[in-house]
Each structure stands twice: as structure tokens, then as C-alpha cells.
Amino acid sequence: MNSEQTTDIARRVRWHAALADPTRLRVVDLLTVSDHSPSELAAVLGLPSNLLAHHLHTLEEAGVLERRRSEGDGRRSYLRLTSQARRRAGEDGRSAAFPTPRRVVFVCTANTARSHLAAALWRRASAVDATSAGTHPGERVHRRALEVARRHGLDLPDVPPRGLEEVTGEGDVLVTVCDRAHEEVGGRAWAHWSVPDPVALGTRAAFESAHDLLADRVRGLARLTRAGSV
């Protein structure tokens, strides 16, 4: 056995050992749909912070999850599955015990980029209706958001950004794609995806990265919707 094979086996042993615990499997289930701060996970799981920290450290060491500092409240961080863990969770057929929504509303602060891209990706992936909104809507959709949509063949109309309160209705579920928006709407959000703001950099690469992150999350959630479990 060569060194590369030995390293791969050791990595797989860490991975399976990390998941050989009901609490850690529950953490993976929760993060399959939504990013969470440690305090949010502690509240859902009913765990003291020191015990949760132990479980999170084990999952991080095994490459199952990663942390990202909030772009809103800098004292807060969000946990999300690594891309490899997300693929494995999808293969496991994990499902969430929620009814299929009437409509998904993707929310960011200005409703000029991430929320529009998420809604466009969703419309291509799912038969469930979708729209987007902002907690503090800007003046217009960012030109680079329109450009990246065209490059990927997405239907993203150049429409004025809209406020959350004028968009949402009964039966809607909110998915925040912006840390600031998530921290503003609080418990109203059904799921949160901590996606870096591409407008802050304004580069083509930043918008491509936002598109790719959103596409990955949309595929996973749309798969659950098709199974009738969201």
C-alpha cells in the first residue's frame, strides 16, 4: 500500500468516525438544508455550548463542515457543510420533514444580485414557484448579476428590486442568501445560505463564485422538493 492510499484510508476513517454519533448526524442533517450559527444549532439540539463545541470540532477535523465569519454581525460565524459532505449527504437520501412550499422567496439585503440569481437558478431547477426580495432594496439589479446569468443561460429579468414586505404572502418560505438579511429577519427564515456578497468586490470572479455556491445549494434543496419533503 502506497502513502497516498494510506492517507486516503486515514481520511475515510476520520470521516466515518466523526459521523458515528447521533448528535453529529443530526448536525449534518440540519446543515444539509441551512447554514447555522453555533448558537442556533445549540438551541435546536438543546445542547450546552461546551458539548456542541466538542461535536463541531470533531466534524471540522474530519472535513465535514467549515466556518465562515458573518458579513453582518462580525461576532457571529456560520457553519456549513463542505462541498464533499454536501454531496455525500445528498447521496444518503436525507430528507427534511417539511411540507412542499407554495413559493420560495430568496432574500438578501439589496435584492440586486444574490437573491435574484438564486431565484433564477431555482426556476430552472424546480417546478415550485420562486421570487426574490430585499430587506433594504437597492435601485437596480447589478449589471454583473445580469451578465453572469446570461453566461449560464439563466432567465434573470432586469426588474426593480423589491422589499420583503411587499413580496411575501401566506405559504411562502424564506431562504436568506445574505448574512445581514438573515440576522434582520431572524426566525422568519426557513433556511439560510451564507454566500459572500459579490457586489462588495464587483469582479466577474466574485459573481461567478456566488453563482456556483448558489447553484450547489439550489440543486440540493430542489432535490428535496422533488421528493416532496421540503
UniProtKB/TrEMBL annotation:
**What are the entry keywords?**
Arsenical resistance
Q: Which PROSITE patterns match?
A: HTH_ARSR_2 (PS50987)
Chain ranges of the HTH arsR-type domain: 4-101
Extract one GO BP annotation from the record.
response to arsenic-containing substance
InterPro entries with a match to the protein in the record = ArsR-like_HTH (IPR011991), HTH_ArsR_DNA-bd_dom (IPR001845), HTH_MarR-typ (IPR000835), Ptyr_pPase (IPR023485), Ptyr_pPase_sf (IPR036196), WH-like_DNA-bd_sf (IPR036388), WH_DNA-bd_sf (IPR036390)
One of the entry's Gene Ontology molecular-function terms is:
DNA-binding transcription factor activity
**Matching Gene3D superfamilies, A to Z?**
3.40.50.2300, Winged helix-like DNA-binding domain superfamily/Winged helix DNA-binding domain
Spell out the protein name for this chain. Helix-turn-helix domain-containing protein
Upper lineage: Bacteria, Bacillati, Actinomycetota, Actinomycetes, Micrococcales
